[in-house]
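Re: Re: ligand-bound prediction request (bumping)

Still looking for help on this. To restate: I need the protein modeled with pyridoxal-5'-phosphate bound, output as structure tokens. Inputs repeated here so nobody has to scroll up.
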Amino acid sequence: MDIPEILNHLGEEHERYFNAVAPPVIQSSNFCYKTVADFRNAIAHETHIPTYTRGANPTVSILHKKLAALEKAEDALVFASGTAAITASVMSLVKVGDHAICVQKPYSWTNALLNKYLVNYGVTTTMIDGTHIENFEKAIKPNTKLIYLESPNSITFELQDIEAVSTLAHKHGISVVIDNSYCSPLCQNPLELGADLVLHSASKYIGGHSDLVAGVVCGSKVRIENMFAKEFMNLGAIISPNDAWLMIRSLRTLQLRIDKAVSTTPQVVEALIGHPKIEKIYYPFLKSNPQYELAKKQMKGSPGLFSLLLKTDIKGVERFCDSLKRFLMAVSWGGHESLVIPFCAIAEENRKANDMPDNLVRFFIGIDEVEYLKQDILQALDKI
Ligand SMILES: *Cc1c(COP(=O)(O)O)cnc(C)c1O
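Reply:
Sorry for the wait, this slipped through. Here it is.
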């Protein structure tokens, strides 16, 4: 199925809702049935026949179909946040006594889940540099059940060879989970490379307008049905039908937004190459990236995030960021607006674990005029 068909048509049944082109928000917690037989049937199939909105809801179900198809998965679940999707995925694969391997510099709450929270439930984690396959091999123990990837991560964009890691993991009966938020389902499909569960913070590209928080997990029917019966129903971190409707609307333009990011971001990055105030540029599709070949192999495009290591101290970073006019200073990314985050604004204890120096600044290129963005960064560099 092609992408526009998924975004525009899949899962939609206009004749069931007055031929409306836009599907309705089914803002109902509860669903009723006329006969015991129908009621029994609904309860027996609560993953897709609505009985109660913590399980299935018709508006949310449209989204499940579209997101599964985008990730080339058999099935998908949508959660209240990316973090809920991470927590459900990890908890579906480990129990007391198990061991996990996670790549360095993951999303901060992934780090907290594995290294602070799950420690209390008897799960241990080894953090490794995921750029070399040998590091995975060395970290595997007899009780390793999970390898957690983020390729690329969202700060300095180190990659993992998803195919090689998945092959190695499966030889040892280990499951592979990957946070694919940076790429969106349009720039990378890790299930095709062997990963077992793919998750997204839909608050970023999938939502795309900085107006909702949500998460997605995609995988095989068996894995998703197991997760539905346990982590999904038990944690209860569902999104509202109204937010699901907003996400369906966001998906209409996902390809336009990603195509734009994939074409404009390299133009901004190129304008900065060799600048005397820049020590290093981090961007997966930069030819000087030591992992450029791997990035080209497993990613269809490199969208809107990149980072700069500035040749200055905290005061210089402050002058630089305070001088930017077209970039909003904020966390998150993936919306319409261009953003900047100076990591020196984050508490030092949180930065140390993730190796974020004072002079590291991350940019997000939104739906903006490239020339203005380039000029804005260049004039701010002069203020350093
Ligand atoms: C934002 C983000 C998350 C967490 O998503 P929320 O929706 O904010 O819970 C996870 N992974 C990455 C890479 C992110 O950028």
